[in-house]
Design goal:
By secondary structure, the protein is of the alpha+beta class. The chain has 2 domains: 38 residues, no CATH class; 116 residues. It contains 5 helices and 11 strands, in the order ααααββββββαβββββ. A hairpin with a 2-residue loop joins strand 3 and strand 4. It is elongated. This is Lipoprotein. It comes from Deinococcus arcticus.
């Protein structure tokens, strides 16, 4: 039995397919194959969209901030459950929540803020006795970030140094 193109692809199609059209389609095959990597880049990732970020802050992270003020060691863990844009940059909580927590001196409350215009990262938290700590990082070169630590308690202000690093990506 003799095998012809008509036998392989069916008579009606083979009758319409001309030799130049067949050669053209075979010549375009490598070109179509080269589009495959681009197509794979354009398809959505399996895990869905990338988490929201603001500078070094990414939703889902947990930061460990530690430092010393007047010889006393202090530390806090700051979670990034969400990022909210507002005055002064992007923060992990809204401005009203932050103002309410700091005005009441709610122990354990913490917030991370990134000011993209000034490229400044700040971590603020309230200690167990109502003292307010701020770790301000002006230079975002390499982890752990180093900055200035300020403690405000009553009318007293004390300074020191602090470090911040991602403890859970």
């Amino acid at each position: 039995m003799k095998v012809t193109w008509a036998t392989l692809i069916g008579r009606p199609y083979a009758a319409r397919m001309t030799r130049p059209a067949l050669l053209l389609s075979l010549a375009l095959l490598p070109l179509l194959a080269s589009c495959a990597p681009l197509a794979s880049l354009l398809t959505p990732r399996e895990g869905g969209p990338a988490p929201r970020t603001a500078g070094p802050l990414t939703v889902g992270q947990t930061w460990t901030v530690s430092g010393t003020v007047e010889g006393s060691a202090v530390s806090s863990t700051v979670a990034v459950p969400d990022l909210i844009s507002g005055a002064g940059g992007t923060a992990t909580v809204g401005g009203l929540d932050q103002a309410e927590a700091f005005s009441r001196g709610r122990p354990g409350f913490s917030v991370a803020t990134y000011d993209g215009d000034r490229r400044v990262l700040s971590f603020e938290w309230i200690g167990t006795n109502g003292e307010r700590y701020t770790c301000r990082v002006d230079t975002l070169l390499s982890l752990p970030y180093s900055g200035r630590l300020t403690r405000v308690q009553g009318g007293n202000v004390a300074g020191g140094s602090c470090q911040a690093s991602v403890s859970q990506p």
